[in-house]
Amino acid sequence: MSEEFKRTLKRFFTNPSALIGVTILIFFIIIAIFAPWIAPPKIPVNKNLEKARNLLENYSEENKYLIINELKNFWDDTYFFAEDDYIELSNLMETIAKFHNKEVSSNELKAHIKELTDYYILNITYYEKFDEETNKVIKNLKKEYNKIEKKYKESVISLNLINELEKIDGEEFVKQAIKVVSRFDKNFHEAIGFNPYIMPNVTTTRTPIPPSKEHPFGIVNQKDIFYGVIWGTRTAFEIGLVVVAISTVIGLFIGSVAAYFGGWLEEVLMRITDIFMSIPFMLAAMVLTTILGLGIKNMMIALIVFGWMVTARLIRGNILQAKNEQYVMAAKALGVSDFFIIVKHILPNTIFPVLINATMRIGSMVITAAALSFLGLGAPQGYADWGSILSYSRDWIIGGTNPTQYWFTILYPGIAMILFVIGWNLLGDALRDVFDPRMRH
Amino acid sequence: MTTYIIRRLLLLPLIILGVTLIVFSMSQLLGPLKLLSTYVDPNTYAKMSERDIQILMKQYGLTDPFPVRYGKWVKNLLKGDLGWSVVGKEPVLDALIHRFPYTIELALYALFPIIGVGIWLGVTAAVHHNSFIDQFIRIFALIGWSLPDFVWAILVLLIFYIGLGWFPPGNLSIWANQIVKSASFKNYTHLLTIDALLNGRIDIFWDALRHIIGPVIAISWLWWANLLRITRSSMLEVLRKDYVRTARSKGLPEKVVINKHARKNALIPVVTTAGQMVIGLLTGVVIVEMVFVRTGLGSFAATAAQQLDYASIMGVLLFTSLLLIIGNLIIDISYAIIDPRIRLG
Amino acid sequence: MKKFVFILLVGLLSVFAFSQVKNPDMIFDATLSEPDTLDPHHAYDTASGEVIFNVYDNLIAYDGGSMTDFIPMLSTVVPSVENGYLRDDGTTYVFPIRKGVKFHNGNDLTPEDVEYTFERGILYDPAAGPMWMLIEPIFGAFTVRDLVEEYVGASWDKIFDSKMNPTSKEYETALVNFYYDVIDPAIEVVGDEVHIHLVRPYAPFLNIICNGGGWGAIIDKEYSIQIGLWDGKAEGWWKYHGWTKEQSPLFDHAMGTGPYKLVEWDHAQQRIVLERFDGYWKGPAAIKTVVIQGIDEWSTRRAMLEKGDADIIAAPVQYLDVLKSMQGVTVIEGLPTVQITSLGFNWEIKPESPYIGSGQLDGNGIPTDFFEDENVRLGFAYAFDYEGMIDEILNGLGIHVPTALPEGFLGFDASLPKYTLDLEKAENYFRRAYRGRLWQQGFKMDVLYNIGNEERRVAAEILRDNLAKINPKFQVEVRGVQWPTYLDARENMILPVYIIGWLADFPDPHNFIFTYYHSQGDYGHYYGTKFVEFATLPRPEFGGKSLNKMIEDASLETDPYKREQMYVDIQKFVIDYALTLPLYQPLAIRVHRDWLKGYVYNPIWPGDYYYLYSK
Amino acid sequence: MMPENEKVILEVEHLKKYFPVRAGVFKRVVAQVQAVDDISFKVHEGETLGLVGESGCGKSTTGMTILRLYEPTFGRIILEEEDTTPWFMTTTEAKRYIKIMYADRFEKMKQEFGSLDEVIKNLNKEIDKKYAEIYFEQGETGIRQDMMKDLTEKRRYFRKNAQVIFQDPYSSLNPRLRIIEIIGEGMKVNKMGTNQEIRDRVAHLMEIVGLSKDYIYRYPHQFSGGQRQRIGIARALAVNPKLIISDEAVSALDVSIQSQIINLLVDLKNEYGLTFVFIAHDLAVVKHISDKIAVMYLGKIAELTLKKELFDNPLHPYTVSLMSAIPIPDPEVKKKRVVLEGDVPSPLNPPSGCRFHPRCPVAKEICSKEEPSLNEISDNHYVSCFFPGEFKI
Q1: Are A280 and B147 an interchain contact pair (Cβ–Cβ within 8 Å)?
Q2: For residue range C516-569, what is the model confidence (pLDDT) as tens digits?
Q3: Interface contact flag, C319 A200, Cβ < 8 Å
Q4: Which chain B residues have a beta carbon less than 8 Å from that of A291?
Q5: Mean pLDDT, range C127-137, rounded to an integer
Q6: ipTM for this prediction
Q7: Is residue B189 located within the same domain as residue B234?
Q8: Averaged over A32-44, what is the pLDDT?
Q9: Adjacency order of strands within the sheet including D82-83
C-alpha cells in the first residue's frame, strides 16, 4: 500500500462526515445482507411435511407409521403421476423416433400427442401447433421428456427413501427421517419458487396498526412495515447501485470516446448528450416508465436512459484536460493502444470526480424512484420498497382522529430513506473534500 | 460573441429535432394500437371493427416505415397538433397552454425566497466556516437534500393548512375563482396574482398568494439545500483568494470584506445555477402540484401518466423540453454577454 | 436583508389572519372524478350522471328515496294501465307534456322537444353508450346498427364507407326510409302528448325512462339543432350517428329544464360549476351555486372537509373511524346500493396474455381454458373469504349475496346457498380438477386490480393468500395497473380473472341477470366463446331451455310471481356452476358537513340532487 | 567528428506543421499558425542534433511532429531509409501524400528527362530511387502497397525506435502507476520479454540512469524532479530506440541537476551509441551534448552546422545574438550582449520576406521582400540569410 493511499485513507477517516456516512452505509449493508435473518420471510410449508416434522419432534414408536404415512402422502401429492407420465412420454419418444425414420406418419404422431393432451400430460398447444411448427414441437417435446424423466427419477429415489425408513427403528429412524424430510422440503421449495420481496399481508384490517412486539414498526396497508423496511434496504441498494453503475459506465464510455477521439465523433456524441440533457429528467423518467409499463425493472431502465449525461460531460472535460498531459503523450510515443491509454492512463486520473458524482447520485436516484412509486409508476404492488411503503402512508400522514395518530406509517420508512440518502451524500461530500485538490491546503 | 450566439441559435433546431426524435422513438415502443390512442380518443375505436381500426391506422400512418411516420408526426407538431388529451378532454396543446400559467406563476414566486434565502444561508455558512452555525446549516441542507419531496409536501399541507389554516390547497378560493372566471375580470397575463392587481382586486391577489405559499414552502427546502451548497463552496473558495486576504490585511472590517469583495465574486457560479433552477422549477413541481391540487403542468403529467394518456405525457415532455432548451439558451447567451470568459465554451 | 424579511413576514401574517369566508349560498362537493361527457345520450358514468341529473329533467322521476314510486315531472302523468295512459296491452306509453316549463335559455318545452330527444338519442347511439336501454324495449334490438342491418339487409361495413357515407344510392334511400319506417313511428307526438310504442310489453320501461343518469333527460330541440346536433331530418341522419364523446356539441354544453344550469366545466381543475335556474318550474333551488370538483388526493379532500371548505366529500370506507371522529361532520353508514362487486372468470384467455405464466398446466402458469373446468371455478369460489372481506375490509359495509343480484331486487333470495370460505371444500374441488393433475403441478397466474381501488387489491390479496394456504403451489401474483390498462386487458380477454363492479342502470333483476349470466350480457360476453356454448346448451334444470333462453324469457314474463321463480331457478343454476363469484354488495357511506340540510338518498340516483338541499 | 558517409538515421524534408485556427459560426478554418514551416535536416547514427530557439519558435512542435504525436501538414520523415510519413495517416491522407510526394514528382521528372533510367539516375536518395523503380513498374498502387502493408508492424517498429524525453518531470509520469509499470510499459507493448525479463531490465535501467533498483515499486511522487527525469530517460531507453528526441529535457530542472542529467545523457550516448535530437532554448545546454546544431526562428531553420563551426563562426544575425546571451563563467571576460528589439512576431501572421528582418540589426530592403533560402555557405554550414556574417559582435 502506497504512502499516498495511506495518507488519503487517513484524511478520509479523520473526516467526520465520512465517518458518519460510512457508518450509516455499513449499517444498511449489514441490514441488507442479513435481511433474511432480521426479518425472516414466511416461507410456505407443505402440510404433510410439517406434520411429519412435528411428529418427529416428539417421536415415539407408534408415531413411526404416522410419519411414514405423512411422507407417503407427500409423495402421492407430488409424484403420483410421475411414473405414468414417464412411461407415456417414453412411448411418445419412440413414436417420434419412428416418425423420424418415416415408419410413422405425421398424422399418427399427432394422434398420439392428442391422446396425451387429453390426459393433461401434455399441453394442448403441442397438438394445435403441430402442423405449423412440427420441428419446434418435437424439440419441445424432447425437453418435456427430459423434465419428466428427471422428475420420475426423483420420485423413485424418494419412494426408496421412504421404504428404507420403514425398515429401521428408534434413533436411527429419527436421524434418517429428518434427513428425508429436509430433502423433501428442499424439493418442495424448488417447486414453488418463493419470492421474499413480496410483502405478505399480516392482517385484514385496513387502518394502520401501531407498533407492537410482533410488528415493531407497525402495520400499514396490511403489510408489516418492519419487513418492508428491512427488505426495502435491498431494493434501495439495487435501484441506487444498478442505476448509477450502469448509467455511469454509459456516461464514461460516451464521454471518453468523445474526448479522446475528438473530431466529428466528439461533435456528434456531445450533441446527443446535449439533446438528452434538454429533456427534463424526472418527466422523462416518468414518461418512459409509463410507456414501458410499471415495474422496478422498467423504472430502472428509464432512470438509466436519462441518467448518463452528467457523467459523460464530466469525464469529457476531464479527459480533454488530461489528454495533453505529457504522460499521455509518452504512452502514445511508446505505442500504447488508444484503448489502453484511455483505460490505464487517462481514466484513473480523471475518474474521481465521476465517482464522487456517482456517489451523490445514488441517493437522489433512490428518491426519484420513490417519487415514481408514489405516483404509482414504480414498484409493483406489495413489493418491499421504501417508496411504496411511503406511498401507502400518504393517506395517513395527515393523521386520523388526531394529527399524529399514524406517525409510524411515515416515520420508519421515511427515516430509513432519509438516512440512506444522507449516508451517500455524506460519503460523496467526504470524498470530494478528500480528493478535491482545492480543499487540500 | 455574436458568433457564439449565432452558433447557439443554429444548434437550436438540431437540438429540438433531436428531442423530438427521442420523444417520438419512445412513443414507438408502445405498439400500433396504443399509439393510435395518442392520435385519437381511444373511446373512438373502443368498439370499432377491425377494418375501421386498420383504416384509422393507415390514416395516421401507423403502418408506414419509421422515417415516414416521424415526418408526418413532425408535420403535425408544426401545425400544433399534439393529439388528443384524454385527461384534459381537449387537444393536448390547449391543455398545455391552459395549465402552463399556473406552473410558471408558482415557479416565479418560488424563485425569490429560494434564491434569497439560499444564498443568504450559503454565505452565512461560509463566513462562519466550521462553526456551529455552519454545521447547523450543513445539516439543514443535508436533510433538505435527502427528504423525499412528497413526504415534505404532505407535511406542509398538514402543518400550514390543517394545523394553522393558513395556506389552503387549490389555485384559488371558490369565490375568487368565480370572479376570475366572470366576464368582468380581464385575463391579461393569465398569472392570477398579476391579473388580480391589474384588475385592481387586491382581495383576489391575496387569495391567489395564499394558495401559492404552501407549494412554495414545499419546494423550497430542496432548492435551498441545492443553492446553499453551491454558494457555500464558492464563497469558501473566494474567501481563500489573495485579494480577499489583502482586503483583510488592509484592516477592512469583516463585513465590508465579505459584502464588497467576497460575495460578489462568489456569486458568479451561483448565477448560472440560479438560471437553471428556474427551468428546474418548471419541471420539478410534479408532486407538489399533485398534493396541493394545483392545475399546472406537473399535476397534468402525473395524472396523464396514471391514466396512460400517452399523448398528454408526451406533449408535456416535449413542451417542457422546449422550455428547457429556450431557457438554457437565454441563460447561456446572457451569461456570455455578462462574462466574456465563457464565450469559448 | 434581515429587516426586509421581518417586514415581509409581518405583512404575510397579517394577511392570513383573515377569517375564512364561508359560503352559505354555495355547496362544494369534492368527488373522485370529473364527468366523462355531458351529452345525456352518451354519459354512462355516475360523475356525468350527477351533473345531468341536476341540469335536466326527465318525463317522470322517482319519488324521493323510493325505487318503485314515480312522480310526474315533465309529463303530467305517470302512465299506468289504471289511469289509461299505458295502452295496447302495455306496449304504448302516453306522456302528456307539462305546459309552462322553460329551458334555461328561455325556450318553452314542447312535445316536439320530447320526440326529438328520444329520436336523436336512438339515432346517435354512440359506442359503449347507454342507449341500448331504450332501443331494446322499443325495437327489440340492442343497437341502431343491428336495426339498420336488418332493415337494409346488408352489413354496416357494406352500407357505409370509412367516412360514414352510404356506398350506393339504394342504400341511401333505404336509410332514409329506415327513419320513416322504423324510428319515426315508434315515438310520435299526438296533440300535447307523446306516445312511445314498445315492440312488446316491458316491465322496467318506466324505470329506464325516469333514471336521472341521462338517457331519460329531455333536451331542447331548437338549441340542439342550433349547436349542431341532429337536424331532425330523415336525410343524412347517419352523419349524426356514433360520434365520439368530444364530437358531440353537448359534450361540454348543457341546456335543460332542470333546477341548475351549467356555468362552467373547467377540465384543468376537474371542476363543474352549476348555478341556480331562477325560472325553474317547481320554483328556484335554495342554494345558489354548486361546485363539483374532482380531487384525487384523499388527504386534500379530507383536509378541505375538516376546514369546512368542502361540504360533501367522497370517502373510502377505510377512513370511517377518522371521519366519525371529526367535529361538525355527518357520517351516514350502511346506505343500501344497487351494486355488486364480483369476480369474473375468463373461460378463454388469449394465449398471448402476459398474466398466465407459461400458459400451460406445468406449475408455472395456467392453460388458457383453465376456468372452463368447473372444479377450478368452484375451488376459487370456496377460497375467498366473503365474510372477512365484508367485516374487516369494508368495515361491515357490505352484504354477502348468493349471486350477482343485489338485495332488494325481485328474485333476490337470501335462502339460496352462498359460497363461503371453506378451504377443505376448495381443496376437494381443486384435487378433482384436471384429473388430479392440477393439485400436483400447482399453477401460477396474475390477478390484476386498478391502482387506487383498494377494495379490489385486498380482495385479490385475500384470494392469493387463501389459495397459497390450500396448496403453496397455487401461486397468484397481485398486480396493480392503471384503470385504462385494466379495461383494455379485460377487453382483450387477457385477464384470467377480473374483479369488477356493476351499478344498476334501472332497478330490475334483468339489469343484473342479463348483464352477468347471458352470453351477450355486458359482462357475460367477456367469458369467451366457450361460455356461449355453455349458455346455449339445453338444460334439464330449465326443462330443456338454455341459460340464455331462460334469461330472455324471464325478462318478458309479466307475472311477478312466475318471474321471481324463474330468477330463483336461474340463480340456483349459476351457483352450482360458479359462473361468477359475487364478492359482496357494497353498502355506501355518506359524509357531509352538519350544516347541509335536506339530504335524500336514493341508491339508483347517479349522485346528489342539490335541489333538495339548503344550508 | 563523425564522417559524412555515416548511416543516416533520421531525415526530415520540408517538414511543415500548421495548426488551423477555427472561428465563426461553423468553426471554419480562418487562419493557420505556421508553427513549423518547411524545415529539413539529417541526423546520422550516433550523432546528436541540437535544436535551439526561443520559446514558440516551433522546435518542440518539430520534435512532436517527428514523433508523430502531431500529424505533419507537409513533408517527409525518413527513419532508417524508410519513409515513415504515411504510417500514421488515414488511408485517404496516405493516398494523397503518395500522389504528391512520389507520383506527381516522378511524372514530372519523366517528362523532363524522358527516359526512366535517367530519372532514376538523377534521383540522389536511395529511397526515391527505390520508389521510382516501383512506380515505373507497378504505378502508384505499387508504392501504396509497399508503404501501407503491415501497418501495425510498421507502427510498432516506429514507436519502438523513436522515443521521447519530456520537459516536465512532474506531468510526464503517470502519478497512478509504479515505476516498474512506467518504465516497463513500452517493453510490454512491444512484447520485449516476459514479466520477469522486463522486471530485470527495468531494474538494470534504473541503475544505468543512476537510481537504486529497489525503487521500482515506488510511485513517481516519491521522487525528486531530477530523479523523475532519470526515470523518464529510462523509460525512453527501455525499448532500445534508435532515435531519442529530448524535448527540453533539462529546462525545468535546477542548474546543478541540469548538468547531472546532461552528463548522464552524454554518457549514455557514448556508451550505447544513441542518436539524439536535443531540443533546448539555450545554446549553453546544447553546446555540451550536440554534434550539430540547428537554430530555429519562427518555424524556420536560421542556421544549421556543426557545433564547432557554429560557435566559431556564427553567420546568422540571430545566432549571433543568441550566442551573446550565453553566460561565460569567467568574470574577467567582458562580453557585449546583444539585446534584440521587439517581440517574437506571431507565427499566425509571420513577417514577409525574411522572418527575422523586423528585429534584425542589419536588415536591408530586400530582407522584407524576399525570403532567403537555406544555403550552404561553406562545407556543411547552412544559413538562411542574405547577408551572412555581416553582423558581428
Answers
A1: no
A2: 999 888 888 888 888 888 999 898 888 888 999 999 888 888 788 888 999 999
A3: no
A4: 26-27, 29-30, 310
A5: 86
A6: 0.77
A7: yes
A8: 86
A9: D28-44, D8-23, D74-79, D82-83
pLDDT at C21 over 60: no
- Residue C40 CA: distances (Å) to CA of C36, C54, C109, C121: 11, 12, 17, 8
pTM, two decimal places: 0.80
Chain A contacts to D (CB-CB under 8 A): 2-4, 325-327, 329-337, 340, 344-345, 348-349
Domain that holds residue B61: 2-86
Distance CA C133, CA C121 (A): 11
Using a CB-CB distance cutoff of 8 angstroms, which residues of chain D are in contact with residue A344?
174, 177
3-state secondary structure of C234: coil
Bridge partners of residue B34, in order along the sequence: none
User: Which triple of cell numbers denotes residue D353?
Assistant: 520576406
Reported as a single tens digit per residue, the pLDDT across B203-228 is 888 888 888 888 888 888 888 888 88
**D24/B10 CB distance under 8 A:** no
* Helices assigned H by DSSP within A293-405: 296-305, 309-323, 326-333, 338-340, 347-374, 386-393
Do B97 and B166 share a structural domain? yes
Average pLDDT along chain A = 83
The minimum CA-CA distance between A304 and chain B, rounded to whole Å, is 14
Length in residues, chain B: 345
CB contacts of C367 in chain A (<8 Å) are 123-124
Cβ-Cβ contacts under 8 Å, C245 against chain B: 41, 43
pLDDT in tens, A374-414: 887 878 878 888 888 888 877 777 666 677 778 888 888 88
Same domain (yes/no): B240, B161: yes
d(C-alpha A210, C-alpha A217), whole Å: 7
Which of A279, A363, A419 has its CB closest to that of B19?
A279
Q: Last residue of some domain: B23, B56, B86?
A: B86
Same domain, yes or no: B63 and B95:
no
In this predicted structure, the answer to whether residue A86 has a pLDDT above a threshold of 50 is: yes
Q: Given this model, what pLDDT does residue A439 score?
A: 43
- The average pLDDT across C184-208 equals 90
- Structural domains in chain B (count): 2
> Over the stretch D343-392, which tens digit does the pLDDT of each residue have?
777 777 788 888 888 888 888 888 888 888 888 888 888 888 888 877 77
**B176 and B98 together in one domain:** yes
Q: Are residues B239 and B131 in the same domain?
A: yes
Inter-chain contact A401–C318, Cβ cutoff 8 Å? no
**In chain A, where are the structural domains located?**
3-37+214-439, 47-192
Nearest-by-Cβ selection for D176 from A335, A337, A348: A348
Is a pLDDT exceeding 70 seen at residue B345?
no
Q: Would B6 be classed as within a structural domain? A: yes
CATH superfamily placement of domain A3-37+214-439? MetI-like (1.10.3720.10)
Looking at CA atoms only, how far is residue B337 from chain D in angstroms?
17
CATH of the domain at B193: 1.10.3720.10
B24, B153: one domain? no
First to last CA, chain A: 24
**Which residues, including other chains, have CB under 8 Å from residue C465's CB and lie 6 or more apart?**
A200, A201
CB contact under 8 A, B307 and C291: no
- Inform me whether the C-beta atom of residue C1 falls under 8 Å from chain B C-beta atoms: yes
Cβ separation of A78 and C440 shorter than 8 Å?
A: yes
Angle at D333 between CA D327 and CA D337, to 5 degrees: 50
- Bridge partners of D303, per DSSP, are D295, D383
Question: What does pLDDT average to over chain C?
Answer: 87
- Poorest-confidence range of B41-45, C153-157, C312-316? B41-45
Instruction: Give the end of a domain, one of B61, B86, B111.
Output: B86
CA distance C335 to C341: 16
Give the number of beta-carbon pairs within 8 Å between A and D: 64
> Are B227 and B303 within one domain?
yes
Listed range (A229-243, C241-255, D23-37, D218-232) with the worst mean pLDDT: D23-37
Q: Is residue B50 part of a domain?
A: yes
Average pLDDT, chain D: 83
Cβ contact, residue pair B169, C300, below 8 Å: yes
